[in-house]
Task: inverse folding
């Protein structure tokens, strides 16, 4: 079973993503900020990470850079309420960028594509 | 020896003396004296031989010369050769010739002839000598009487002339009086008075009686007399000549010849003026010179006074118009008033006036307006109506001010004219360039005319300028006009062209002077109006810009607010929507609550759409370009990666010029470009080396640019890949290198920029970005 790490500072989002993705058949672990995510990655060894950008402490972009230092091939999906970061070159080190939306179809499709499940 | 008196001697003597003292005319006196002598002496012939009948070389002339009586009674005392043919008739058996002389005067000879021989007794001789003496006395008295009469009449005429001199007669009347008085005094048949006119030595006939002066020789004689300042008397005997005799005297005032006075043909027969006439004329001429000069001066003063009065009226009108000009801000009206002031009679009185204004943008003279009649007929109508419409200058100004209709053909033509200021040969552009008036008189010779041709080769003088001549064909050889620069504050803003096409009145330098004076005022007024108009325009633009800016500002604030609100709402909305969907799915299809959940899902979707629209409008999607300082953008990019720089051993060298012009661009995109370039550089150096960043202004082809250089001391780029680094479909082994550069390239080129790579494999690589700088704001 594929493992997904959901990183978001909003608890309700973490809960929603976890339930929705588990329903899709993934094993889901959550982290509430960048630092927690960095701790989780070696322990949980996810197959994919969804990463929020605006977070207190270590933000998504810094977290992305830090994860990339070790995990060059790990697919990372940036999830943000801010559409403008899509053009931010710092997020280009990620594999996909999804603007947060109540309808999670787009996110789920992206995850499946990156995990070559389609 | 005792003298025996003639038997009737006493009676004869008495009768002769009576006759002599009678008031009879001299001819009758002489006739009767001769008759009584003839009777008394029983002579056959008694004659009075006048001095003019005595021919030289004969015996009569000897009597005349010697002033001695000749008695012939026995033997003829002369040789054959001493008697002239005309005198033979007088030779008879006995005769006497007694000279009638008295002191220096000689009045002729008293002749008494007898058909038979006789001897003159001493008494007879004494009696005859007494008779001769009495006859001489009578002749002398008569001559004296006549001379006295003549002198009296001359004096009278001179007195009349003198009166004329002292009275302020008009010039023409005075000249007529001079000629007529001269005719009377000199008893001439014709007379002419000439006065110097124009060039020195040129004479013009001012007054004359008879046709004598029409002879061209006559004028030559007059010129000669004027030149020599000496009176001249001529006598011609030829009958075919127009005059038989002539007297001409110069009119000299203070040593300067001012004219001549000539008289022709004495009424007496034969016509011949004597020395006395010449003297008389000279005296008359001297006296009259003064009078003529006085009259001339009087005339000049009068004309100056008239001129002065006219100028005062003109100035008064112009002053009123100026006042009106300064209170008007309507451009068309002000120009129309200016040109009308130049053309009306009580203004400057030119026939036509045209205005050309400098168009600085096109560097050309633009025809603006023309005022004046389109043809001579119209001109006549206007002038006659104007002369009836007399009013005070202020009324006139008000009248001009109120009428602004100008539909003349000339106005239309002038408005079409545009003359490049570079055409220095064109008199209009030359007026602007030189800033001086030009008075183009009708040229006298070809050379002068050539100077008034422009580059196009047409006659500038032929009409308004070379361009108008194409519309109105005028004979260029008789066209005179003047141009005056229109001065604004310190610069020429246009040209006024004036002419007198219809009345052909010459344009004087004084006219130009007044026109220049007036146009100086008008120029300022016109410039003021233009400035006022510009000011209004700029004011309107500023207002528009201000409204636009306020709107922009509002939109920016609104955008900022809505962006932050939208972001804040998005997260909870995701949860609400997401969980509602979950709830919806968990509910059985027939559950009544499904209606509620679906409504929530739909409404959340609607809100998300609204948020997305708001964000797209305010920031996302489109680029947001504004003027940027690339140094600031670079600093922001560096701050994003300062962590990577500070903890490593990368030496950062920044070289930013003090003065860097702004660049128009999207701050977000450019920040990413710089960020990526710097990140790439840092990574290529593996955290060790020197990073140089330079920003400075440059000029390419005369245009300003800003150049940004990022140089690292890393491994550089494999030459094999160098040509493909900007190709988005080409992937290299180095993933990072391949990711960013195509997008950097796309962003830079979308900013009209250029990107260059200076690659030294294994040593260094420099990326140079060049962006067009914002032009300096116009003043």
Result:
């Amino acid at each position: 079973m594929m493992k997904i790490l959901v990183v978001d500072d909003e608890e309700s989002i973490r809960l929603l993503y976890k339930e929705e993705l588990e329903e899709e058949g993934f094993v889901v672990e959550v982290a509430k900020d960048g630092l927690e995510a960095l701790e989780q990655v070696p322990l949980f060894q996810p197959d994919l990470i969804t990463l929020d950008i605006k977070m207190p402490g270590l933000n998504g972009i810094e977290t992305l850079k830090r994860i990339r230092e070790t995990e060059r091939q790990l697919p990372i999906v940036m999830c943000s309420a801010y559409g403008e970061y899509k053009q931010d070159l710092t997020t280009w080190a990620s594999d996909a960028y999804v603007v947060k939306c109540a309808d999670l179809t787009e996110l789920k499709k992206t995850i499946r594509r990156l995990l070559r499940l389609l | 020896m005792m003298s025996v008196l003639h038997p009737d001697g006493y009676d004869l003597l008495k009768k002769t003396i009576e006759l002599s003292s009678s008031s009879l005319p001299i001819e009758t006196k002489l006739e009767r004296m001769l008759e009584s002598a003839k009777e008394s002496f029983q002579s056959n012939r008694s004659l009075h031989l006048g001095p003019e009948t005595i021919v030289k070389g004969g015996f009569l002339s000897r009597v005349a010369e010697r002033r001695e009586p000749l008695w012939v009674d026995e033997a003829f005392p002369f040789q054959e050769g001493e008697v002239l043919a005309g005198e033979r008739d007088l030779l008879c058996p006995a005769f006497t010739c007694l000279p009638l002389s008295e002191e220096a005067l000689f009045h002729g000879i008293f002749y008494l002839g007898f058909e038979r021989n006789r001897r003159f007794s001493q008494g007879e001789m004494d009696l005859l000598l007494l008779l001769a003496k009495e006859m001489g006395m009578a002749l002398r008295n008569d001559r004296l009487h006549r001379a006295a009469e003549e002198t009296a009449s001359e004096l009278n005429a001179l007195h009349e002339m003198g009166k004329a001199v002292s009275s302020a007669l008009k010039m023409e009347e005075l000249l007529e009086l001079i000629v007529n008085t001269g005719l009377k005094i000199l008893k001439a048949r014709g007379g002419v008075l000439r006065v110097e006119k124009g060039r020195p030595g040129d004479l013009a006939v001012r007054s004359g009686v008879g046709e004598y002066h029409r002879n061209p020789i006559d004028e030559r004689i007059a010129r000669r007399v004027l030149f020599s300042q000496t009176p001249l008397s001529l006598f011609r005997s030829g009958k075919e000549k127009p005059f038989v005799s002539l007297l001409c005297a110069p009119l000299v005032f203070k040593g300067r010849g001012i004219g001549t006075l000539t008289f022709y043909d004495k009424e007496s027969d034969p016509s011949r003026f004597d020395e006395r006439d010449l003297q008389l004329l000279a005296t008359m001429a001297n006296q009259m010179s003064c009078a003529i000069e006085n009259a001339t001066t009087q005339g000049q003063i009068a004309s100056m006074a008239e001129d002065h009065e006219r100028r005062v009226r003109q100035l008064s009108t112009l002053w009123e118009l100026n006042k009106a000009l300064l209170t008007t801000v309507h451009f068309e009206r002000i120009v129309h008033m200016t040109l009308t002031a130049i053309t009306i009679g009580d203004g400057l009185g030119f026939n036509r006036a045209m205005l050309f204004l400098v168009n600085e943008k096109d560097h050309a003279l633009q025809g603006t307006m023309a005022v004046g009649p389109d043809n001579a007929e119209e001109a006549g109508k206007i002038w006659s109506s104007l002369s009836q419409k007399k009013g005070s200058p202020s009324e006139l100004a008000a009248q001009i001010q109120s009428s602004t209709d100008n539909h003349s053909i000339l106005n239309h033509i002038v408005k079409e004219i545009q003359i490049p200021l570079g055409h220095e040969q064109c008199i209009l552009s030359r007026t602007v360039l030189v800033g001086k008036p030009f008075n183009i008189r009708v040229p006298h010779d070809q050379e002068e005319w050539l100077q008034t041709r422009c580059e196009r080769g047409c006659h500038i003088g032929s009409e308004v300028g070379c361009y108008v001549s194409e519309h109105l064909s005028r004979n260029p050889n008789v066209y005179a006009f003047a141009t005056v620069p229109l001065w604004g504050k310190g610069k020429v803003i246009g040209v006024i062209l004036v002419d007198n096409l219809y009345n052909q009145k010459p344009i004087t330098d004084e006219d130009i002077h007044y026109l220049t004076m007036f146009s100086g005022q008008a120029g300022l007024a016109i410039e003021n109006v233009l400035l006022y108009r510009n000011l209004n325009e700029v004011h309107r633009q500023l207002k528009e810009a201000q409204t636009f800016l306020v709107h922009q500002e509002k939109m920016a604030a609104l955008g900022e607010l809505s962006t932050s609100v939208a972001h804040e709402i998005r997260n909870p909305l995701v949860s609400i929507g997401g969980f509602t969907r979950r709830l919806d799915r968990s509910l059985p299809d027939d559950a009544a609550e499904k209606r509620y959940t679906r409504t929530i899902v739909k409404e959340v979707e609607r809100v998300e759409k609204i948020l997305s629209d708001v964000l797209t409008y305010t920031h996302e999607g489109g680029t947001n370009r504004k003027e940027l300082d690339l140094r600031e953008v670079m600093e922001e990019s560096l701050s994003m990666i300062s962590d990577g720089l500070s903890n490593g051993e990368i030496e950062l060298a920044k070289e930013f010029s003090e003065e860097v012009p702004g660049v128009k661009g999207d701050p977000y995109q450019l920040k990413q470009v710089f960020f990526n370039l710097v990140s790439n550089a840092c990574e290529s150096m593996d955290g060790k080396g020197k990073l140089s960043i330079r920003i400075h202004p440059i000029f390419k082809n005369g245009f300003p640019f800003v150049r940004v250089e990022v140089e690292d001391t890393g491994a550089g780029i494999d030459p094999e890949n160098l040509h493909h680094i900007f190709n988005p479909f080409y992937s290299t082994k180095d993933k990072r290198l391949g990711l960013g550069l195509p997008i950097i390239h796309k962003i830079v080129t979308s900013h009209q920029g250029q990107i260059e790579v200076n690659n030294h494999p294994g040593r260094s690589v420099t990326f140079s970005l060049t962006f067009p700088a914002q032009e300096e704001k116009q003043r």
Q: What stands out?
A: The interface with chain B takes residues 10, 12-13, 15-16, 19-20, 54, 62, 72, 81-84, 87-90, 92-93, 100-104 of chain A (CB under 8 Å). The first strand of chain A starts at residue 3 and ends at 7.
